[in-house]
Amino acid sequence: MKMNTLSCLAAFLGLCLLPSGPASAQQNDADRAKSQANFASADGDGDGALSRAEFEVFVNANAEDRIGRARQIRRFGAYGRAFSTLDKDGDGKVTGPELSAAAQSR
């Protein structure tokens, strides 16, 4: 699994919208590291991409850790919408290039 994929997903989930400054920079790093661990844990087949079911596990883990917009996605049951937004080619997986494209558009 590539770290840039995890970083892009973290950006998509709103880490870039957290407050800025020295204290929040440390929090961003901690959240990014936890989000990366959540991604690895959710990626059950280890292919470096998330299926729809894996994506839901990932979002729920991030919601529990209060990372980015994950709590909003979970609260509103917007897993499908978030997943569809990322899965541009409709192959049922969220890949590194798809995550990169989403992060760059924010």
Task: Provide a descriptive summary of the structure in words.
By secondary structure, this protein is mainly alpha-helical. The chain has a single domain (3-13, 20-104), classed as Recoverin, domain 1, CATH 1.10.238. Helices cover 63% and strands 4% of the residues. It is built from six helices and two strands, in the order ααβαααβα. The protein has helices at residues 3-12, 22-42, 52-64, 70-75, 79-86, 96-104; strands spanning 50-51, 93-94. It has a two-stranded antiparallel sheet. α1 packs across α2 (22-42) and α2 (22-42) packs antiparallel against α3 (52-64). The longest helix is centred in the N-terminal third of the chain and has 21 residues, at 22-42. The chain is globular, with a radius of gyration of 13 Å. The relative contact order is 0.20. Mean pLDDT is 78; it is low at 14-21.
**How would you sum up the major sheet?**
2 strands, antiparallel
Q: State the end-to-end distance.
A: 23 Å
Helix share bin: 55-70%
**Overall 3D form:** globular
CATH topology heading: Recoverin, domain 1
Q: Look at the structure and give the CATH class.
A: Mainly Alpha
Count of DSSP-assigned helices: 6
Strand content: under 5%
Give the helix/strand class. mainly alpha
Count of distinct structural domains: 1
